Amino acid sequence: MAEAADPSAHERVVAFIDILGFSDLVRRAFGGDDELLKRLHHILELAGNYAAVTSSGMFGIKCPSPKIQATCFSDSIVISDVWGEDIALWRVMSEAAFLSSLLLREGILCRGAIAKGKVIHDERVLLGTGVLAAYELERQVAIFPRLVIADNLVSEAEQLTLCRIKTDVDGFRFIDVFYHFSGVRQSMTDAMLGKPGDSTVPEVDAFAQIREFVIRELVGERTPSILAKYRWLARQFNEAVKYYVPGQIEQIRL
Fold it and tell me: Rounded to whole angstroms, how far apart are CA atoms 101 and 177?
């Protein structure tokens, strides 16, 4: 009989991300909406591939454990990294924001939370108090399509670059996913890689595409709870275009 693997738990930073409205999407897709079925398959394939790539090192070589890991199951994605690594929090926040922005551009809303705690996270097992902390924060606090940061991580999160943190009306801090489309992230990444040019070029087409999607969802028949989520997103969008692409994209009327 093979010897059991050592179930070593490590203090890890954990992002728990949930795709909103997933059950409704599945029902519609398998109820005859072939276009939606293709789109949903593409989105889950994207998330699954993203999890596989994120859990790998450069050129697909597996990172030595314990390092960053990602797991995709049903409508949820979990990304984690070992606490104590110099850029662990930045990596998890950045990867979570990047994935959420990709899905937002596809017309899919996410909400999630980032917390820390003891976790076993490898290719086969995902278990621990850090996962529970992120899951409970996502379920009880995130509510809107936002990535909430646990209070005990805020002071360190505020010192990070390549992520912009905002304060919501309820006092919770969350990651601005629109920052990914501002061009700042790409400009800083190019600078770190030694590429020429230091100009920041925002992805105006991404803002335009998201604007059309949000407007379309706002005018459809929605329950009050779902409508509240799209109105929240519309307000965040309006702040983002005013900040990142002033005068280039019209705000959404509410």
Answer: 6
Mean pLDDT value across the chain = 83
Token reading at 8: 């070593």
Q: Are 204 and 245 in contact (CB under 8 A)?
A: yes
Over residues 199-254, the pLDDT tens digits come to: 568 899 999 999 999 999 999 778 899 999 999 999 999 999 999 999 999 999 99
Closest CA to 252 of 226, 206, 215, 202: 215
Are 147 and 114 in contact, with CB atoms under 8 Å apart?
yes
Torsion of CA 232, 237, 240, 246, to 10 degrees: -140
- Cα 154 to Cα 66, 89, 115, distances in angstroms: 23, 10, 10
**Three-state helix/strand/coil letters over 96-136:** HHHHHHHHHHCCCCEEEEEEEEEEEECCCCEEEHHHHHHHH
Average pLDDT over residues 114-141: 92
**Domains in the chain, ordered, with CATH?**
10-161 (3.30.70.1230), 176-254 (no CATH)
- Dist. CA 135–CA 142, nearest whole Å: 10
**Cβ atoms of residues 92 and 14 within 8 Å:** yes
Contact call for residues 104 and 210 (beta carbons, < 8 A) = yes
Report the distance separating Cα 121 and Cα 167, nearest Å: 30
For residue 202, is the peptide bond before it cis, meaning its omega torsion is within 30 degrees of 0? no
> Which H or E run contains 137?
helix 129-137
